[in-house]
Specification:
The chain has 516 residues and is of the alpha/beta class. The protein is 22% helix and 29% strand.
């Protein structure tokens, strides 16, 4: 893990860092012979809620659309998501999940009821994208399904019937109804969340009350051969450690995982979160100061889980995370549309590097959200799409899917602004499924580059190659229908000298390299 090195503290105010630090050398040691665990591919999961243009326009355009589609689902979006090997998609929410009744979204589309989306701008919900359409989307992408079932405004019977509709192989009425709606074989449902944010939009429950509700719902979950899904308990809001302590303590034996949600706000103030672009270096720093709190959050929640689950049977899913800014001017405040810049790409990488340190507990994360909402992979405008810096961070980290985490000991320079300090960069290393070693660096400092000298120990390497994501502008971003401004480029700043790997890391960048 990154450690603070006060002797190398960068105490200058943002924008006035001394040039002497521009190529500061930092020593690191790779412990390739001391693997610590598997980095699950599910750490790179997605989250798509019925919110704004996240589903309608973002995924679903309908079979009659002029936008190229396969059974109503955008071909360009599917291709882009396949290219980053999306392992899992969480759906249908979010707050929307605890008002969603699955029967609204099955059967002939013209006969499905239209509802008001109370949580997200009051927009009409046509229910044209329902159960079958979601599984079609997941299957086209090649992703597993993670369903969030309604606890806040529903009952265990509705949950049980949805599961049976999806998974029953028999001749019962629900299985026959599924077949009548076009799906003969059962759907594959590996993950089911029992509720969402039940401390807030999912019912304003106390931890004790939700624990009892979870136990009640899970009693009718009927986990078994037909329904082997991992049962995910609705988890805490950020640093509410008591929620995790109480829920795991009261209901842990009936769960396989519990979630936690944490969003990065530059200001830390929900009423004025900060701008997605056009920001200054003050909010650049504060964004990374906030996002790096993820490390402490995971420490505290895993400690609470360890009290009740010493064998670490229960996984921790960070199934909502990412940046949350003030919406773009002129857009519906309830649709949560924000641009996505270089800053977001580095935020994503910095969080990946943190998640990799918790292989014993963190088995899945789901960024919010896949398309057109919050820290999106893809932005759309009619037939046009843009791949965001966050998308490219996910693509650069594909070699870490199901890799073996390797300790990389490094003490990063401290970046100090006012009374707050953070490491200037963080790192990760792993042995990929191809047997190669991969090293990634998220350099958060907007002015300073570093020379990272990695002692490879007994590991032999002859060459290094990779990609770098960076730009001269802090808010460099891509816009649908316009030429691409920012994307990864071939990395040429590395070389191997004996058993030392030398990496020249540019300011404000993500670097991922492979050793050969």
């Amino acid at each position: 893990m990154i450690k603070t090195l006060t002797a190398l503290a960068l105490t200058a105010a943002i924008g006035f860092a001394p040039t002497a630090f521009a190529q500061q050398k930092v020593e690191a040691t790779l412990k390739a012979d001391q693997p610590t665990g598997e980095i699950s591919r599910y750490v790179y999961g997605q989250f798509s809620e019925h919110l704004g243009a996240g589903i309608y326009e973002g995924v679903w355009v309908g079979e009659d659309s002029a936008i190229p589609n396969t059974r109503g689902i955008r071909n360009d979006v599917v291709k882009a998501l396949k290219d980053i090997k999306v392992p899992v998609i969480r759906w249908p929410g979010g707050c929307f999940a605890d008002e969603y009744h699955w029967r609204d979204g099955i059967g002939e589309r013209s006969k499905r009821p239209s509802r008001k989306n109370n949580w997200w701008g009051g927009s009409p919900e046509t229910n044209h994208f329902g159960t079958h359409e979601f599984f079609e989307f997941a299957e086209q992408v090649g992703a597993d399904a993670y369903l969030a079932v309604n606890v806040g405004s529903s009952n265990p019977t509705e949950m049980r019937e949805w599961i049976e509709y999806l998974t029953s192989p028999g001749d019962d009425t629900l299985a026959q109804e599924r077949r009548a709606n076009g799906r003969d074989e059962p759907f594959k449902v590996p993950f089911i969340g029992i509720g969402n944010e039940n401390w807030g939009c999912g019912g304003e429950m106390t931890a004790e009350y939700y624990a009892n509700e979870y136990r009640r719902f899970s009693s009718f979950f009927h986990k078994g051969k037909d329904n082997p899904a991992i049962r995910v308990a609705g988890g805490a809001n950020a640093f509410d450690i008591n929620w995790t302590d109480v829920v795991v303590g009261h209901a842990g034996r009936r769960m396989d995982a519990i979630s936690v949600h944490y969003y990065t706000l530059p200001t830390g103030n929900w009423s004025k979160k900060g701008a997605a672009r056009g920001f200054g270096e003050d909010q650049w720093f504060s964004t990374f100061h906030q996002t790096l709190r993820m490390d402490d959050l995971l420490k505290q929640h895993t400690a609470a889980m360890d009290k009740h689950d010493k064998d670490k049977r229960i996984a921790l899913y960070v199934d909502e995370w990412g940046t949350w800014y003030d919406v773009e001017e002129g857009t519906n405040p309830g649709h949560l549309y924000q641009q996505n810049t270089l800053r977001d790409g580095i935020v994503a990488a910095a969080n990946f590097n943190i998640f990799h340190e918790y292989t014993d507990r963190v088995k899945m994360t789901n960024i919010a959200q896949t398309i057109n909402v919050l820290q999106a992979m893809i932005l759309t405008d009619g037939p046009n799409i843009a791949l965001t810096p966050t998308y490219y961070a996910f693509k650069m980290y594909v070699p870490f899917h199901d890799s073996t985490h390797l300790p990389l000991e490094v003490t990063a320079p401290t970046w100090t602004v006012g009374d707050k300090s953070i490491p200037a960069f963080n790192t990760t290393a792993a042995r990929g499924k191809d047997g190669k070693i991969y090293i990634a660096v998220a350099n958060m400092h907007p002015q300073n580059g570093y020379v990272l000298n990695v002692n490879l120990g007994s590991e032999k390497a002859k060459s290094v190659s990779g990609e770098v994501l960076t730009h001269t502008q802090m808010d460099a971003h891509n816009t649908p229908g316009k030429p691409e401004v920012i994307a990864p480029k071939a990395y040429t700043g590395g070389k191997v000298k004996g058993n030392v790997l030398e990496l020249n890391i540019p300011a404000k960048s993500v670097v991922v390299v492979r050793l050969d």
